Amino acid sequence: MTAAPDVSAAPGQVPVAHGLAAPPAPWRLLLRKPTFLIGALILLFWIACAIFGRAIAPHDPLAQDLLATNSPPSGAHPFGVDSIGRDVLSRVIVGARDILLIAPLATLLGTVLGTVLGLAMGYFGGIVDTLVGRVVEAVLALPVVIVAFLFIVAVGPSPLTLIVVVGFIFTPLIARTVRTAVLVEGQQDYLASARLLGERPGYIMFAEILPNVFPVIVVEFTVRLGYAIFAVATLSFLGFGVQQPTPDWGGDIAANYVLLGAGYWWETLFAALAIASLVMALNLVTDAIEQVISS
Amino acid sequence: MTDQGAAEESPHGVPAGPGGPSLQKAPRGRPAEPAEPAPRGFPGGRPPGPAEPTLDVANLDVTYRVRGQNRPAIRNVSFQIGNRESYGLVGESGSGKSTVALALTRYLPRNGLVTSGSVSIAGRDVLALSGSALRALRARTVSMVYQEPGRALNPSIRAGRQIAEVFEIAGLDRQTSTDRAEDMLRKVQIPDPGQVMNRYPHQLSGGMAQRVIIAMALAAEPSLLILDEPTTALDATVEAEVLDLVAGLRADMATSVLFISHNLAVIAKMCDRVGVLYAGELVEEGPASVVFDQPSHPYTVGLLRCIPRRGQRKDHGRLDAIPGFQPAPGQDITGCIYADRCALVIDECRTSPPPPFGIGPDHSARCFRHEEAEGLPRSTPADASLPAPPNADDPIVTLRGLSTTYKNAGSELKALSGIDLTIMRGETLGLVGESGSGKTTLARALLGLVVPDPGSVLEFDGSPLPADLRRRPRQLLRAVQIVFQNPDSALNRRHSVRRLISRPLSRLAGLSGSRLAERLADLVRSVRLEQRHLSLRPGQLSGGLKQRVAIARAFGGGPRLVVCDEPTSALDVSVQAAILNLLADLQAKEQVTYLFISHDLGVVRYLSDRIAVLYLGRLMEVGPAETVFAGPHHPYTEALLSAVPSLDGQRRERIRLAGEIPSAATPPSGCVFHTRCPRKLSTGVCETTEPPLAEVEPGHLMSCHIPVEELRRLQETPR
Amino acid sequence: MTRYLLRRIGLAIVTLWILSVIVFFAGQVLPGDPGRAVLGPFASQSAVRQLDHQLGVGRPLVTQYLSWIGGLLHGNMGFSSEYRSPVAPFVVTAIGNSAKLAVLALVIIIPFGIAGGVLAALYTGRGVDRTISLGGLAASTVPEFVSGIVVIIIFGVALKVFPYPTGSLSGLSAPSQLDHLILPVIPLVLVLFGYIARMARAGTIEALESDYARTAILKGLPRSVVIRRHILRNSLLPTITVIATQTGYLIGGLVVVEQLFSYQGIGRLILSAATHKDFAMLEAGVLVIGIVYMVATLIADVLYTLLNPRLRVGVSG
Q1: Residues B330 and B66 sit within 8 Å (Cβ to Cβ)
Q2: How confident is residue A164, by pLDDT bands cut at 50, 70 and 90?
Q3: Which of B104, B95, B85 is nearest to B300 (CA)?
Q4: Is residue A59 in some structural domain?
Q5: Which residues in chain C are closer than 8 Å to A289, comparing Cβ atoms?
Q6: Is B431 helix (H, G, I), strand (E, B) or coil?
Q7: C189: domain CATH number?
């Protein structure tokens, strides 16, 4: 379509250029990034462990072989045996399940509630905004882990409690991020334009603003997911998360780290490496997503 | 304090005499010399000058690497600037004019690369300089003034220190540097330089900050001063002052100037010679007066026709817009870069790139048909379908005592103060004013986006208009709509064009199904979009197309009053013309009334039937467009008119406003304009009493203590 | 300026009050009978009731809250049900121990974090930057007890170069104390490094891309002067605030690290108070942490205001 401009065009007819080429789909850009691929691969591995853990694991993660207590890595037990005779490898594999269930659900809960709250705070402003802002500030004064265990001590630990508590703690934090993004959008004329069409606040918040702040929410979700894993693992380590004897990385470390001084390193190291690899894989994926969104 | 005489001598011991030290000519042949060297110099040629030019750019090619692809930004550009000469580089956005400036100072972004050509400044081959030699060049030989003065200064360092730094680089001690910095501030006519020295940039107004930058740039007495859109971010009256300052300083200093701007009139005013840049190519070059009076490239011809000039008005006919678009960056071009948009295009244009043809002394154009360029056929027919002349006494909007106050952290800002204004049915009322005048607040109050102070009266079509948008019934919502300045902000970038235009049809016009589709198609046609644009998002459209979508959205509900808030000021001149034509056509077709807000007097004059002038939230003058332009004017209007550089040569008797626009938070007493008014009465009445807005001629209202006959006499007598 | 300070302090007090309410009522919903928790299952009902009365259990919550807050204002933090003695001495000792750990962590992390971030910014997109950025991100999201375990295994168990567990520092000489603190400080430093480096990097990149940086470079200033005088001054200002907000994370990390290394700090204190349902101890400990955080952010805000001419001088004609 490189025809000569039609000089004798109809009155006022302005030839119009083609729309610029559409940018390539974001997921295509993602697949080109090696860091994303490595991260996604590790993530998929742990997800597979979470789903098929019992089937993959060489031993029953709960079975105690009291004769093998504290035995170091060997052919039968590649990761060794823990202080009450359980196979460490099996516990590491099955241990992926709870954290990979709890952390994403908690993050999802926090993101959904936080988005709604943040949209309302940013769009309406005023007294609600101020009040919620103060409470957020007060909660922020305490480390997340402390707030979480205060609540868990009150309610008693269970996976559901963990999801709700971590989700609720994330809600104001995510709301704050969404609110800031909404305030930036609030300076755009398309909101005035929508109001001039008589659009209702609900439509403006969810149909006009939400699509525009969605990238921010996606990034926030992935970043918060990392924190959720951090928080859930830490709470388990402190004894407020997944309870023994359920296989769990944080809990297993808590149960065995006192024996480090005696040299039984395998009982904690592999669970620690599992957490580290999960978190780092998530970081690689998050970093890649963030780069693609911001480019 | 150093005496004035010391300024004559360069602080670096480098003689600043004509041409500078005659260094050996830099080798021309850079590694990547284009296979086919374009003719240098001009066939019609200027005789080779006795001295070496201050700036010599030869066959410059600059490429940006974007996503692994090379996108040429500058193609084979050559030009020279002689000693003490002022050269203007003019072009629209995307023409590469700022890239030229960056390439000259070797400050291209990381993905930018000079692929061939050479740049020599004062005899030094800039592209071959080592790091330290480049620093020395930047310190002594070339300086730059930027578009956004506020951001070009370091926010955490006092203004004086930032200027003094230039002297310190040259090896002067701290005290001497400080003294010299203060001298420089005096030179750029800053009142009370001692105080300004100690200010932080955020305490300076835009005009003041730009003076500080100019002082900084001239401190080293450079051989070449590059001004990159130096007044684009400033208000008209401040711009006029800064331009006068630069012109004045140039007369005193041995500095050559490269002046980069999109504004042809500014270039015409400031420059001896001018180069017209299009899509990275210099399409025409010559003495400013010749290029603007007898342009020889179809692009220059088209550009000049896009601008409403010589009092042109919509009833004189349409503006002649340039069809099509600048080629996308990185597009392969075999022939003439302008061929796709040119009405004179012939086969040859598509196969071989035209060399610069010499036309007259020192005047050349890259066009095979340069001889016929001035007779370029119109691309837009002149016949305009005119709206019926508005009824002079049939108001559609009446504002009485409209005041608006913004409250922020305990302080109050009165953006509008007691505005009485009527808008007549079917007319275009132009609203003119500088920043802080309240013109946008007035628009927003009319739309119900800003709630005015109690006691303000708004009427629409004879009945009260609820101040708050949320209380307006649907028929009032659809009656008053707006076209915003910036379509990027006004259109939701996540919605498709179809959704953007359909929404007012369903919300306001209550259409659905096939009737909606029908009206949508109709609307798309009337703003000259195409069906295939409907599935795109705003980000995939050019600026002009986006503004068409915004216009379609405003017209979707069948409005009776459309507020146009600077609808073309974010657009290039060639696009602006098409939008202005469209607005005029739509007004005729849909019988709407316009409130047209702009800072561009030429545009306002072209479109408006009546004009209202605002200053610090008060109406200074209201009247029929031709009366307001012909005079007698309110002194502020007079200052505005004489501030705007004109392409037409007919320079007005100039009055200049001293000082800055006062803050609306602390308006002056009496007549708010008295602090800057050059015609202020000596009786003192201007300082104490606010003049009423009174009718001085039929339909012509003015708020001034000076009797209108006196104003007429003052403004007619040349001084 | 003074007005701003007063306003800022006022806000901090309001926030602290909200925090005290949250902490107090969160403590109240803890299940169980404090008296019973202290005296054990075999104590007589009357003894439990007497202790409950002593602890103020059963009175209206508002009264309890008022007497608790009143006591706090007089320096009385309450009575520990676990240790059957006043809370204050425990909290004071614990805070002192934690402070040693926290200050050491900050002393290490601030220069390294800033230097790392600035270095990454100066080489944006190159290897150095990718390493620092991704490494920092990883370090900041790996929980302290995970890196702690690795550190213990390598340096404490395999190489035996540093003492593990850390235990109590009392009676140790200063160099020996330092020796004991090295291992627990590493996980804290790792987590904070990522945050501070990332902020410093972002600030520096923004400054490098600014118009004023272009002005400085095109003035012909040497690169080192541009960076020192024009870039860092503007880019490190926001980092100050970040460091202050990181005290929150630092304290969260203390809970974990002190537990892992058996170190008697405030974190371990409230953790054990929580598990033993020692409300007075828990509430006092948590509130003290809140105060520390508030003071840290307050100092940072004041510092930021003092260093930022835009806020210090205000806009005037």
Answers
A1: yes
A2: very high
A3: B95
A4: no
A5: none
A6: strand
A7: 1.10.3720.10
Across the interface, whether the CB atoms of B340 and A196 are under 8 A apart is answered no
pLDDT in tens, C13-56: 887 887 788 777 766 665 555 555 556 556 677 777 776 666 66
Choose between B119 and B14: higher pLDDT.
Answer: B119
Is residue A188 one of the residues assigned to a domain?
Answer: yes
A:C CB pairs within 8 Å: 146
The nearest CA of chain B is from the CA of C65 a distance in Å of 35
Write out the residue range of the structural domain in which residue A128 sits.
26-54+78-294
* A66 domain residue, yes or no: no
- Given an 8 Å threshold on Cβ–Cβ distance, is B490 in contact with A22? no
Looking at the partner chain, which of B156, B203, B220 has a beta carbon nearest the beta carbon of C234? Answer: B156
Which residues are registered as beta bridge partners of B406? B413
Q: Which residues of A touch C251 (CB under 8 A)?
A: 143, 146
Q: What's the CATH class of domain B3-141+222-285?
A: alpha beta
Q: Do C142 and A275 touch (CB under 8 A)?
A: yes
Q: How many CB pairs under 8 A join A and B?
A: 108
User: Hey, which residues 72-91 in chain A have their CB within 8 Å of chain B?
Assistant: none
Collapsing DSSP to helix, strand or coil, B80 comes out as: strand
For residue A174 the two structure tokens come to: 């995510």
Whether A150 and C26 lie within 8 Å, measured CB to CB: yes
A141: nearest CB among C153, C275, C290: C290
Which helix (H) or strand (E) is B287 found in, with range?
A: strand B281-287
What is the span of the domain harbouring residue C220? 89-316
The count of domains in chain A is 1
Between A11, A15, A212, which is nearest B381 by CB? A11
Whole-angstrom Cα distance, residue B526 to residue B505? Answer: 15
Q: Is the ipTM of this complex over 0.85?
A: no
Which residue carries 């608006």 as its tokens?
Answer: B404
Domain tally for chain C?
1
Residue with the larger pLDDT of the pair B12 and B138: B138
Q: Which of A141, A149, A257 sits opposite C149 (nearest CB)?
A: A257
Q: Which of residues 188-247 of B touch A (CB under 8 A)?
A: none
Per-residue 3-state assignment (H helix, E strand, C coil) for B631-654: CCCCHHHHHHHHHCCCCCCCCCCC
Out of A16, A190, A197, whose CB is closest to B507? A197
Closest by Cβ to B138, choosing from C218, C229, C316: C218
The CATH superfamily of B425-612 is P-loop containing nucleotide triphosphate hydrolases (3.40.50.300)
CATH (domain of A239): 1.10.3720.10
Answer whether A197 sits within 8 Å of B532, measured CB to CB.
no
Q: Compute and round to an integer the Cα radius of gyration of chain B.
A: 27
Chain C neighbours, 3+ Cβ pairs < 8 A? A, B
Burial B485-520 (b: 16+ CB within 10 A, else e): bbbbbbbbbbbbbbebbbbbbbbbbebeeeebeebb
Q: What is the pLDDT of residue B390?
A: 65
Question: Of B712, B678, B708, nearest to B691 (Cα)?
Answer: B708
In chain C, residues with a C-beta closer than 8 Å to the C-beta of A294 are none
CA-to-CA distance for B527 and A16, rounded, in angstroms?
Answer: 11
B3-141+222-285 and B425-612 have identical folds: yes
**Token couple for C289:** 């942490």
| Least Cα separation, residue B537 to chain A (angstroms) | 9
Structural domain contains residue A63: no
How far is B245 from B260, CA to CA, in rounded Å? Answer: 17
- pLDDT tens, residue by residue, A63-98: 787 787 877 888 788 888 888 888 888 898 988 899
CB contact under 8 A, A260 and C153: yes
**Structural domain contains residue C21:** no
Measure B713 CA to nearest chain A CA, in Å: 44
Q: Domain coordinates of chain B in residue numbers?
A: 3-141+222-285, 425-612, 625-716
